[in-house]
Amino acid sequence: MKEIKVGLLGFGTIGTGVVKVIQQNAEVISQRLGTKLTLAAIADRDITTDRGVVLEPGVLTDDADHVLTNPDIDVVIELIGGYEPARTFVLKALENGKHVVTANKALLALYGQELMLAAEKNNVSLLFEAAVGGGIPILSSIRENLCANQFSDVFGILNGTCNYILTRMTENGEDFSDVLADAQELGYAEADPTFDIEGIDTAHKLSILMTMCFGTWVDFDSIYTEGITRITALDIQYARQFGYQIKLLAIGKQEDGVVEARVHPTMIPDTYSLAEVRGVLNAVRLIGDFVGPVTQVGSGAGMDATASAVLGDVMSLSRQMLGESSFLPPALNYLTKNITTLPVRAMEDITSPYYVRVMVEDRPGVLAKIAATLGEYNISISSMIQPERELGGCVPIVLMTHDAVESDVRAALEKIDQLDICREASLFIRIENDLA
Q1: What would the pLDDT profile of 137-161 be if each residue is shown by its tens digit?
Q2: Helical pair 176-186 and 160-172, crossing angle rounded to 10 deg
Q3: Please, where are the H alpha helices in 122-191?
Q4: Which GO biological-process labels does this protein carry (predicted)?
């Protein structure tokens, strides 16, 4: 029976994990495939650093073409990350008739349509389970077990760094900057954490989920993206008093041929399942018309979980090549020719309840001025907290609104910030009460 040969691009943390899975689980992989899965070549710019694994002589090279054009290699695993040269390498692998497995969500978010069309043109497959949720098998669930459903909503806690930071802030009352520094020391956050804490990494993953759930290409620039850097321990404290927790949430919705695509700090009721997702864990919640709500939780990143997902894709492709399965489900859940481009609702038109914090001077008439300004923009208050006076006579006025239009909230707070009673820019957080 045909031996399956794999080539690997990128020998960093995840690449090392892939090698470990292939080596340590060789017997079980062989038992499940009925043949041997062989790591034929690894290409990386650094071929001297010890990764703690033993390779056969001649496997490691600094020449990517040795992987991309080698006629013996059946599947190329791309773990370089980023946009280039990953895009060029993946296209070359596809054009050379090789199946490709990647964990590169950034690449797929920006160039997914181009790459999927290239795979189709060359009659090969591009799989990417590890790109969203790491070890959570959410993409295979969407394209296989749940594929008969029409999805209306997809929500996700998709970045372990942000979830770890917000969990620490929630449980210990710590400040954002202190927790971020600890997360970097522990290896949960990069030295440059911008993609994580500004929501960019989460938005990359949301674009993939929305294509698979709603059958629409999502222009990455159309996803509203806001990070967690302005969230304070004070906001988390008040959220808990209202019965909520704050999570960096990816939100995709579809209704009447229009989609919402947004990533931002979100207050969710502390009784909801997503509120219980703590630390570096990820979670995805889908709502299908027949299956109803489905939630999957697990390790969203890291060497072992991501390598597990990568090898799952490799084995699916191997089974097809071995003739055990004559057909692989469409990688994006829809036939490429049937994926459309639905309009994305402008953020200014989003409607939701809001949490609002305004730092003001403690003097008579302050609350009346704020309430009057909100009323001018059709924003009604559902509940409020006004703490005791702090040093310097500055106090936060914290309130929850009923449903309001985003453009009205922004306009009202801009006017409030200009009042002589305000000491600093106000903050608002959107609320989602319909995740159940």
Answers
A1: 999 999 999 999 999 999 999 999 9
A2: 130
A3: 138-140, 160-172, 176-186
A4: methionine biosynthetic process; threonine biosynthetic process
Using the structure block, give the residue that is written with the tokens 């522990």.
Answer: 186
Query: What are the φ and ψ backbone dihedral angles of 359, each rounded to 5 degrees?
Result: -95, 115
Tens digit of each residue's pLDDT (9 = 90 or more) over 57-100: 989 999 999 999 999 999 999 999 999 999 999 999 999 999 99
pLDDT confidence of residue 392: 55
Cα(13)–Cα(133) distance, rounded to whole angstroms?
Answer: 17
> What is the pLDDT confidence band of residue 35, given thresholds at 50, 70 and 90?
very high
Please state the three-class secondary structure of 179-211 as a single string: HHHHHHHHCCCCCCCHHHHCCHHHHHHHHHHHH
- Please give the pLDDT value at position 1: 56
Binding site for NADP(+), by residue number, is 9-16
Residue 309: CA count within 13 A, CB half-sphere:
28
For the CA atoms of 370, 376, 378, 384, what is the dihedral angle to 10 degrees? 10
Tally of CA atoms within 13 A in the half-sphere of 285 that contains its CB: 18
How far, in whole angstroms, is CA 416 from its chain's centroid?
Answer: 34
What is the pLDDT at residue 301? 82
What integer pLDDT is reported at residue 404 of this predicted model? 97
Rounded to the nearest angstrom, the gap between the alpha carbon of residue 71 and the centroid of all alpha carbons in its chain is: 35
- Categorize the per-residue pLDDT at 396 as very low, low, confident or very high, splitting at 50, 70 and 90: confident
User: What are the tens digits of pLDDT across the range 184-202?
Assistant: 888 888 889 999 999 999 9
The pLDDT of residue 390 is above 70: no
Q: Based on the residue annotation, tell me whether 205 is a catalytic residue of this protein.
A: yes
76 touches 98 (CB < 8 A): yes
Catalytic residue among 2, 5, 121, 205: 205
Contact predicate 159/202, CB 8 Å? yes
Beta bridge partners of 75: 6, 99
What CA–CA distance (Å, rounded) separates 114 from 150? 25
Give the annotated binding-site residues.
9-16, 105, 190
Which domains are delineated in the chain? 4-132+303-329 (3.40.50.720), 139-299 (3.30.360.10), 348-431 (3.30.70.260)
Q: What is the Cα–Cα distance from 107 to 90, expressed in whole angstroms?
A: 10
| pTM greater than 0.85 | yes
Residue list for the binding site for L-homoserine: 190
Q: What is the mean pLDDT of residues 287-294?
A: 95
Binding residues for NADPH: 105
Residues 180, 55: Cα–Cα separation, whole Å: 36
Q: Are 80 and 98 in contact (CB under 8 A)?
A: no
